[in-house]
């Protein structure tokens, strides 16, 4: 292996970025790929993504710019982890920069372009299935979100076991109503608490108490579904 390279790593959360969890495996994959020959790793870039900034990748922009001005090749540890991310794939394809993936060394600009089209098609198909699942649930008379949930809780006698049991049953049913939505989001690669909360809020979904979703409420929802 000869030439100049710039490494690009991606981790999903700030905690993962600080701990190095996942980062060490990506570094090892790139080191194994570059093993042998005369090569120079000019710089390493680590992107820390969350649900709120998954479409904003400043480190990728920096890495692509440096690769362009130095003539280096951008090397990525695992392209398969990003195979469903159309925006990332299109940015990579249209950058004009030479790139290589340690796990898919034969993937060129054409292959990445096809992967981007497939990723976009899958995203649209998942979105359509989500809408159809919600429409089917509404036709069955299921209520997705209860704006009166908070008031009902205030009226309930918190010390009354029967009332608490009824509230829990409603929350469990609400979780089941949202199960197809959560499954569709997971297929789309949206799995962190923050990103799920953002997606549910964007789709107009409400918590059992008729409020917006936050990480804690998503965590409670997932606990009920497992």
What attributes characterize this protein structure?
single chain, 226 residues, alpha/beta, Rossmann fold, 2 domains, four-stranded parallel β-sheet, 56% helix
Description:
- The chain is α/β, with parallel strands linked by helices and 226 residues long.
- It has helices at 14-19, 23-34, 58-70, 86-94, 109-139, 149-155, 161-187, 193-202, 215-225, and strands at residues 3-11, 39-48, 73-76, 99-101.
- The protein has a four-stranded parallel sheet with strand order 2-1-3-4, sandwiched between helices.
- Strand 3 (73-76), helix 4 and strand 4 form a beta-alpha-beta unit.
- Helix 7 (161-187) packs across helix 9 and helix 8 crosses helix 9.
- The termini are far apart.
- The model has no long low-confidence stretch (mean pLDDT 75).
Here the CATH topology of the largest domain equals Rossmann fold
The dominant shape is elongated
CATH superfamily caption of the largest domain: Resolvase, N-terminal catalytic domain
**How many domains comprise the coordinates?**
2
Number of helices: 9
Architecture per CATH nomenclature, i.e. the level-2 architecture of the largest domain: 3-Layer(aba) Sandwich
What is the β-strand count? 4
Regarding CATH, which class of the largest domain? Alpha Beta
Low-confidence stretches: none
Strand line-up across the major sheet: 2-1-3-4
The overall average pLDDT, rounded, is 75
């Amino acid at each position: 292996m000869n030439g100049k390279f710039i490494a690009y790593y991606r981790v999903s959360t700030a905690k993962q970025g600080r701990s190095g969890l996942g980062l060490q495996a990506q570094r090892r994959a790139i080191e194994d790929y570059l093993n042998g020959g005369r090569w120079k790793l000019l710089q390493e870039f680590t992107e820390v993504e969350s649900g709120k900034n998954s479409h904003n990748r400043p480190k990728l922009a920096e890495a692509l710019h440096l690769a362009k001005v130095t003539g280096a090749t951008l090397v990525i540890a695992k392209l398969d982890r990003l195979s469903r991310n159309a925006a990332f794939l299109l940015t990579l394809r249209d950058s004009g920069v030479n790139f290589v993936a340690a796990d898919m060394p034969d993937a060129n600009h054409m292959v990445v372009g096809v992967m981007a089209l497939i990723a976009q098609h899958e995203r649209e198909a998942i979105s359509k299935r989500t809408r159809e699942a919600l429409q089917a649930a509404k036709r069955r008379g299921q209520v997705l979100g209860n704006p009166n949930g908070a008031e009902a809780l205030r009226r309930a006698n918190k010390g009354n076991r029967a009332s608490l049991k009824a509230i829990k049953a409603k929350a469990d049913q609400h979780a089941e109503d949202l199960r197809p939505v959560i499954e569709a989001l997971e297929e789309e690669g949206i799995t962190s608490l923050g990103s799920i909360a953002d997606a549910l809020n964007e789709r107009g979904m409400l918590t059992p108490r008729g409020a917006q979703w936050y990480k804690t409420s998503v965590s409670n929802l997932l606990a009920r579904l497992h």
